[in-house]
Write a structure and sequence with these properties.
By secondary structure, the chain is α/β, with parallel strands linked by helices. It has 21 helices and 30 strands. The strands form 9 sheets. A 7-stranded mixed beta sheet has the order 5-4-17-16-18-19-20, sandwiched between helices. Helix 3 crosses helix 4. The relative contact order is 0.10.
Length: 654
């Protein structure tokens, strides 16, 4: 916990009106604790099943779980058809906004028609249940339509984020064995068209088995064309019937593969199946965000190329009949108020985004959101990494108007859905903490031997019971699945790879990846704690911290900081040296002398992926003065050169 939060002792109790009207109350924890499997069975009953399950959970062969065994459902039917059949066809499913300002509105009835046409088109192209389809698209409605069309016919979709290189795409197509690729000529990003088709052409030229490339016309850029393989979406999908009778599939039928990058080994294809996944993403979306289909307008400001987009742009919101906003571009295009403009335009009530974006907004200053009417917002969410208390408080005050509770969610690609989170109307909020396991989730903080730790302690986060939306395996590699996630503490305990601490009140604070825990003179120090301390200083907008080899202390702390706009001038010259000393002293006072950074570098930008995640491994390469690793997933790889140019010849000795 940072000094700022400790000093103020600030907590936020649920507003009485919210507590009275929230979708769930405090009794939900007792209900789940009394009978965990019945709790999840009740959650599953919120969906429409073609056939009821015989067994809620089969855990006879851990770590290979089966949920809702014997049950049959269709994911796309649950996300679209059943709402239309219930008379909600005219409700808006998506308000879509392109970066240039073009818009589309899709009602549930229109979405159903589009999904049916796309399903018919895939069938015409020879795609059958179990086949894999790669999707490499910008943030346009066809991305969600393609996912749902695959789910409708039982094909397994494999979405690759549109910022990935041809190399990354080729390796994923090969590993998944995809036979069809759905892409676009390009998308708009930072005010200009960004081509996608060339990367697909490059990737497909290196792999075998891709029969068709289906291309959405978005930017109308000139593209290379192979008549034997390439097809325009508007030609093939546009001529199809809007009628399609869906088939129902086993609850354990594969739904999608999502690849997570490793630093050295090949990416891991995380496999999610149908019944358990949809049950948990739908229920957590409804409970965590207190979603009311009418009148809420919900916006997950992420990309469908990541698991957040799968679970909380597509499947969770659609299963709950939400009206969502979907935006193609970046927060600063064509101006820094773009997101706030969209909140005002569509009267967004729920916003879910990443701490790195919040810290960017902090850097730009509070005047930007103050220029827009954000009064429609009633609830905020945070996802992707631990949110430092200072960013939490800024988010709460300057975007949420001091009235919106913030749901700080912890989960992973592997978990599929929320695992730790406060609940609106229930939880007294502690800024910077994900606080408690979601009802029906068994999460513990343990020591290196797997012994559960009590309050006011630091250790490793583990999950000790299977959960419905859990990954089922790594695609094509059961052994790697066991070795990666289930070997440290046995095959019935999932090790998340994250460090965590419990405070004196039992709240859980995520400390980031275990490999981001530094060992300084025998003391375990979290990079997240040091980053949070730095951002707690009024001159710092954003910080990234890594550990670098040190002959004396084992590891030394190296920090990279971006200053707030009104402090940037201090980051140069002699005054910059003074500011660096001030920041070092601040961290030493805040956390302890052992946490004082060995080196602080003031930079203009940090290396980030297009999903907004800071690539700390690249900063570690710089701190260790070694050759940079893969930079293909960065938004702007030139950032690394700018940082290297500022690197001093030797670290400061003070």
């Amino acid at each position: 916990m940072s000094e700022t939060t400790q000093a103020t002792g600030r907590t936020f109790t649920p507003p009485a009106e919210l507590a009275a009207q929230a979708n769930v109350g405090p009794e939900i924890y007792d209900e789940a604790a009394r009978d965990r499997l019945s709790f999840w069975a009740d959650a599953a009953h919120r969906l429409t099943w073609d056939r009821e399950w015989d067994t809620v959970l089969d855990w006879s062969n851990p770590p290979f779980a089966k949920w809702f065994v014997g049950g049959r459902l269709n994911v796309a039917y649950n996300c679209v058809d059943r709402h239309v059949e219930a008379g909600h066809g005219e409700q808006v499913a998506y308000h879509w906004e392109g970066e240039p300002g073009d818009t589309r509105t899709l009602t549930y009835a229109q979405l159903k028609d589009e999904v049916c046409r796309a399903a018919n088109a895939l069938t015409e192209l020879g795609v059958t249940a179990g086949d894999r389809v790669a999707i490499y698209l910008p943030m346009i409605p066809e991305a969600v339509v393609s996912m749902l069309a695959c789910a409708r016919i039982g094909a397994v979709h494999m979405v690759v984020f549109g910022g990935f290189s041809a190399d990354a795409l080729a390796s994923r197509i090969t590993d998944a064995g995809a036979q069809v690729v759905i892409t676009a000529d390009g998308g708009y990003r930072r005010g200009a068209p960004s081509a996608l088709k060339p990367a697909v052409d490059d990737a497909v030229s290196r792999v075998e088995g891709v029969r068709h490339v289906l291309v959405v016309k978005r930017t109308e850029q000139d593209v290379e064309w192979d008549d034997s393989r390439d097809l325009w979406w508007h030609d093939v999908v546009g001529r199809q019937s809007a009628e399609h009778t869906c088939e129902f599939f086993d609850a354990e039928h594969p739904l999608y593969i999502m690849y997570t990058s490793g630093t050295t080994a090949k990416p891991k294809g995380i496999l999610h199946t149908s019944g358990g996944y949809l049950t948990q993403v739908a229920y957590t979306h409804w409970a965590t965000f207190d979603l009311k289909p009418d009148p809420d307008v919900y916006w997950t400001a992420a990309d469908v190329g990541w698991v957040t987009g799968h679970s909380y742009i597509a499947y969770g919101p659609l299963a709950n009949r939400a009206t969502s906003v979907m935006y193609e571009g970046t927060p600063e295009t064509p101006h820094r108020g773009r997101w706030f403009e969209l909140i005002e335009k569509y009267r967004v009530t729920i916003l879910y985004t990443a701490p790195t974006v919040i810290r960017t907004f902090m850097k730009w200053g509070e005047d930007v959101p103050a220029g827009f009417d954000l009064s429609s917002l009633r609830l905020l969410g945070s996802v992707g990494e631990p949110i430092n208390p200072e960013a939490w408080l800024w988010y709460h005050e300057h975007i949420g108007g001091g009235r919106c509770p913030i749901m700080d969610t912890w989960w992973q690609t592997e978990t599929g859905a929320h695992m730790l989170t406060p609940l609106p109307g229930v939880t007294t909020l502690q800024p910077g903490s994900a606080q408690h396991p979601f009802p029906g989730i068994s999460a513990k903080v343990v020591d290196d031997e797997g012994n559960e730790l009590g309050d006011d302690s630091t250790g490793l986060l583990v999950l000790t019971e299977p959960w419905p939306s859990m990954l089922r395996t790594i695609w094509g590699d059961d052994d790697r699945y066991v070795d990666t996630y289930w070997s440290r503490f046995g095959t019935d305990v999932y090790f998340a790879g994250d460090g965590a601490k419990k405070d004196a009140d039992g709240n859980i604070w995520l400390l980031g990846r275990v490999d981001d825990v530094m060992n300084v003179s025998g003391h375990r120090i979290s990079t997240t704690e040091v980053e949070s301390s730095l951002v707690g200083h009024p001159t710092v907008a954003e910080a990234a911290v890594v550990g670098a080899s040190d002959p004396t202390t084992g590891q030394g702390i190296v920090a990279f900081v971006i200053l707030r706009g009104n402090a940037e001038a201090q980051g140069e010259g002699a005054s910059g040296d003074e500011l660096v000393q001030t920041l070092k002293t601040h961290v030493a006072k805040d956390i302890g002398p052992i946490a004082k950074p060995r080196q602080i570098m003031v930079v203009q930008e940090l290396p980030k992926t297009r999903s907004g995640k800071i690539m700390r491994r690249l900063l570690r390469d710089i701190a260790e003065n070694r050759e940079l690793g893969d930079v293909t997933t960065l938004t702007d790889s030139s950032v690394m050169n700018m940082i290297k140019d500022k690197l001093p010849a030797a670290p400061s000795e003070d």
